[in-house]
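Researcher: Please predict.
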Amino acid sequence: MSASAVADVIEACKQHGFKFVGKTDDGWFKLHGDLLPPQADKGYPCEIQLDPKFFDLPRIRLLKIPPELPAAAPHLGADGGLCYLAKGSVVLDIYDPVGQLLACLQRAAVVFGHIVKGEMLEDLAEEFFAYWHGWPCFVDIQDNVLGLQNCIVAQANESPLWFITDNEDRTTEKLKSLGYQVTDKTVLTYRVKTGAQPRPLTNHWPPETVGDILAWQSILDPRCRRKIHKRIKEGKKKKANGVLIIIESPLMTYGFAVLYNQQQPAPKSKHVNSRDSSFGLKVMPISVVRIDDRYLAQRNIPKLKTLAGKSIAVIGCGTIGGYLSDMLVKAGAGTCGGKLTLVDLDILLPQNIGRHRLGFPDLMSNKAEAMARELKRSAPGAEIRALPVDVRQSQLGELDLLIDATGEEALGHWLCGQYTSTTPMLSIWIEGPGTAVRSLLRTNESGACYRCLWHSNRRGELRSTLAPLPTILAGHGCEGLYVPFPASVAMHAASLGAEMTLDWINGVYSPALRTRLIDHTHQLASPDCDPPRDRECPVCSS
């Protein structure tokens, strides 16, 4: 904001009873005054912190939390910070800083008014993560087995980190990729499940002892409470120094540690049971961070199936296949028992780098092997197989989906003859010098294969553009001729392929032929459709 705009904002705050008191360490303006909820008979001292550029929401914090409020109140942090708007839910108008500030202040007063009246308690469950935080614990579990779990203790910057896993080899690979050192230590760990969404208690929070935890869980889910108590007593019987309890709920996974070797007596609590000494043991909340492959792939597409558990082969790791294979792994390919096979005989040459997913460090390397290494670096839990061979001499095994990303027409026809009768096949290619990108999915014998489309195109049917595709070649001498187009076109093709692959796994097979026009000086000739197999196709008629 300009100096005059800042002065206007501070003056507007002054008109509403707020006084400028200085700046925060990060340069935000601080003002003190009273937050007055609607129809309230008194105000509550608070501090407003204003972004000098007015891009971020004003921070509003109560200077003193009213004693009549419960220990855990919705939208109110332990330091008095008030969450009155979700970040990203509104866009501030930087050209109206005064109006925007007053709107934020009014919204904060309304939200706090609800809090004071004891309303919005249901929001405690939705924002539970804000009330439950502690030492980080990473969870890499993909099975549904409850009870005793494996725990790897790794070292990072001389601090121990806990990793709960159902596959030590997979998790160790992930730790190595992070540069963490695996130690020979472990922690007794149990995993329990509950059908109840967690929410903090409003009268006693946070829990400090096992007794507090059990009392809290009794309210949420008595069955889960009994499971937790059983595991804590079991750990004590085994004379462990401590035990980790990981709780899986519909909303989130959370947990806590019980420390058996505390010399100092635990603070007295109304929940302590004189007949069971475990009630007085101290507990430490654990912040559970999921790093399992299923979660990483599912998080951005929560209502869709991922590619986890499927066997997929990508033929061609060039301009299209390189970007596509990266997207497939991010959608779960090669995880949870699945496998991603990359097939390419070629090596990466200097002239490939300008539009390839790989870069200079992979120069003169086989494309399939280099791409597999790159994908394993970014997704160490994925099973990725590289076949640096001619696909016509390869043994791909049983596949759920075969993807032809070579863009080589003759090879595409050969693949149709070899695989389309038994295996779903997706073909992706670029037309002309990046004029359009297309993709064709065949999942049954009645649909067109890639060779069928060749026959249709020869008759002038199902073309991508109305005008003939331009023929532009570049290169000379021993480099040979090639079709020039930028990396962005390859990314368009890979994105279309990834879109159709996700549709396939979710049972969406139509439209089977899709075209994305890149050069808008041309006119699209064929809308997305489901072409039938061609009567002239030797593959489909045999």
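Model: The CA atoms of residues 194 and 357 lie 44 Å apart.
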